[in-house]
Write a structure and sequence with these properties.
Distance between the termini: 12 Å
Oligomer: single chain
Number of domains: 1
Pfam families: 2_5_RNA_ligase2
Radius of gyration: 16 Å
Protein name: 2'-5' RNA ligase family protein
């Protein structure tokens, strides 16, 4: 697993994504709603560590002072850029040719300032270079090729009715501890709300889709 920094939507955006999850579940398709752990919250991953931190919660890092995990308090400057309303680009499929994850893709230019500020604090990370980053909200788990078309048919009409998602919160994820740190919101003082999950956190996907 890799450590991550994530943006979370407001209540309306969260409810919207959870409706998509429920729609996939009702259709008998693997959705993000299948995972009931507290870390499984609708989110946009804005950064991941360049190195793996741990395979599962409870496995200590080789170097306890590893820069792979960014302390939540270091990210306070990012809060001044939130909230941000981000246009929805549409539905996309990310992954390998034989396996795909259905996502709501968001307009990267709207998040350019946030992405740049996070990178300045945390470093470039892996897979999130500015010219290749595709911000998104994941709807499904990995789907077989024959399931992708069905999943798109379920969620595409719903996504078309939601032109904007507002991102208001910031959190970090430490897989070695199985814990999220909520950095807070723009108008409040910083606080680290720690959410520890035990075994449920181990279900979190490596690529944070």
């Amino acid at each position: 697993m890799r450590a991550a920094i994530e943006l979370l939507p407001d209540g309306e955006g969260e409810a919207l994504v959870r409706r998509y999850w429920d729609a996939l579940s009702s259709a008998g398709l693997p959705g993000r709603g299948d995972h009931q752990g507290l870390s499984n919250w609708p989110h946009v991953t804005v950064w991941e560590s360049a190195e793996h931190v741990a395979d599962r919660p409870g496995v200590p890092r080789a170097d306890a002072a590893s820069p792979a995990v960014v302390a939540a308090e270091h990210l306070v400057p990012v809060l001044g850029l939130l909230p941000v309303a981000v246009p929805v680009v549409g539905v996309a499929v990310l992954g390998r040719p034989d396996r795909g994850v259905v996502v709501v893709e968001l307009a990267a230019p709207a998040l350019q300032a946030v992405h740049a500020e996070v990178a300045a604090i945390a470093g470039e990370g892996v897979g999130w270079r500015r010219d290749r980053w595709r911000p998104h909200l994941s709807l499904s788990r990995a789907l077989r090729v024959d399931q992708v078309e069905e999943a798109l048919a379920v969620v595409a009409p719903l996504v078309e009715a939601a032109p904007v998602v507002t991102l208001t919160r910031l959190r970090t994820w430490d897989p070695a501890e199985g814990r999220s740190h909520d950095v807070g919101d723009r108008v409040g003082e910083w606080s680290a709300t720690q959410v520890t999950e035990g075994r449920a956190a181990a279900c979190r996907p490596v690529d944070h889709c």
